[in-house]
Structure formats: C-alpha cells, structure tokens
Specification:
Helix content: 10-25%
Shape: rod-shaped
Structural class: mainly beta
Number of strands: 9
Number of helices: 1
Largest sheet: 5 strands, mixed
Distance between the termini: 94 Å
Order of helices and strands: HEEEEEEEEE
Amino acid sequence: MNMKCAKTLLLGALLLPSLAMAQTDTRATFAVTKDFADGNNVDEVTVSIDCNTGIILDQDKVLEDGDSVEFVVTDFTTGTLNCTIEEADGTNGYSAEYTGNGDEDSCTYTAIDDLDAFYCDIVNTPDEVNILVLKTWNIEGANNDVDLGYTLYAYCDEVFEDEISEAI
C-alpha cells in the first residue's frame, strides 16, 4: 500500500464517525388545520413548510375549509431544525391568523428536538370592505316635524366576485 492510499484511508476513517453523527434518525411532525371563519368552501389555499435542514416528505399541501394535514421532517440534527408554516400566496380578500405551539404562539418553530410534535391552526377572516350608501329623503308636503334619523343594516350572505358599480 502506498502512502497516498494510506492517507486517504486514514482520512476516511477519521471523517466517517462525524458523518454518521450528522445523519441521525430523527423525526418531527407538524399537524396543520385550515379554517375559513365565514365557512368559505370554494377557495383552496396552498400551505407550505419551510425548514433550514432535514428531509421534508412533502413541502406543500392544498387545503380547503376544515381540512388538515401533517407535515413530517426527518434526518436532522437534534436542536438545529427551524421550520415555518404559512400560506404560500394567501387568499384574496382574507387575512390569515396563525396559532400554534411554536415561538410566540405562532407557526414558527426553532431548535426542534427528536420526536417533537407541533400544531398550527390557520384561520382566514374576511377583510373589511367599504360600502357607500346614498340616502335621499322624499318628504314632499311634509311639515318640519319629520324625523330624519334612520338606522341602516347591511348583511352579506354571498361572496361577490364583481364590483357593484351602480347606486342602490
């Protein structure tokens, strides 16, 4: 055996234990639920997990109202895995609120250990909308004792896709 082969074998023998330590048989799970506060059962949202290390079995899932999914991350060094779960693009007209058992009650998780289990609840609430109402009084022939006060109630039981451009 020449000296070059001996050095290569020695270097390989020294590096092998450190490489074996880096490849651990670890596992962390993330249970994610999706809810639309208004019961919207039309829109789908892509939810993704992003981690700094490890093997993620499936990074993106498409969820509807009431759906849930579990993300699994394996093969990471204990205490070094950091992950964030969020909607990929969000839903137009909605704001997302994230609640989980991660950092500061969010869906961001740091320094994950082996066999850690987390949850993340994502609730989409409809954004506020502005409605312009024009009221015209028709009080011909009335005396000055007319009460001009009124109460207006507005209800929306459907999602409107188009803009309403005419006065109601």
